[in-house]
Write a structure and sequence with these properties.
The chain is mainly alpha-helical. A two-stranded antiparallel ribbon has the order 1-2. A hairpin with a 2-residue loop joins strand 1 and strand 2. Helix 2 runs antiparallel to helix 3 and helix 4 runs antiparallel to helix 5. The longest helix is centred in the middle third of the chain and has 38 residues. The two termini are 42 Å apart. The model has no long low-confidence stretch (mean pLDDT 78).
């Protein structure tokens, strides 16, 4: 496959960009945080129709050009006030959803490390230490293993379902 050119409009940090590629090898170079990865992501999006960074297409649109950010800028409101009064309230939904997806990951990581013996030590109650202790007595007392395992599974599933529901709810417009 050969890509002759790519044109970006309001994509990530680019308001408008047109690049003509040459046959052979093309090298993207420049300072850090200038958008080289965004160009590669744009090529990836063209090939696969999804982003490797954001879970939603609307996250790829330049954020500062939206109405809730542009109108206060025209009125001469300071950048800090725009951040706290306009951008943060509109981005709060994405922040909460990302935080909710991190909760099951943190629970599982803590339980796994405790199970391996590098997390919380035995007197401290942790699902990982309870599973580790239940594993030793699995033959005689299977409930000592099953109870923390089921609790861990239920916690992970419930928080994941909650995060998915919040993500779906965040995509709806009222």
């Amino acid at each position: 496959m050969f890509i002759e050119s790519i044109e970006l409009s309001d994509y990530r940090n680019y308001s408008h960009l047109h690049i003509d590629f040459h046959k052979g090898t093309n090298v993207l170079y420049g300072d850090n945080a200038q958008g080289k990865t965004n160009i590669l992501e744009a090529v990836y999006v063209c090939c696969t129709t999804k982003s490797h960074k954001g879970s939603k297409d609307k996250e790829m649109i330049r954020f500062e050009e939206t109405d809730f950010a542009a109108a206060p800028k025209i009125d001469g409101i300071s950048g800090i006030r725009i951040l706290f009064r306009h951008l943060l309230p509109n981005a709060l939904g994405m922040i909460v959803v990302n935080f909710l997806f991190l909760i099951p990951q943190a629970i599982f990581t803590e339980a796994f490390l405790s199970f391996l013996g590098v997390g919380l030590s035995a007197p401290t109650a942790s699902l990982g230490t309870l599973i580790q202790e239940g594993r030793d007595r699995m033959i005689l007392y299977p409930c000592e293993l099953l109870a923390p395992l089921i609790t861990l599974c239920v916690l992970l599933v419930v928080f994941h379902i909650l995060a998915m529901a919040m993500e779906r709810r965040g995509g709806q417009t009222d």
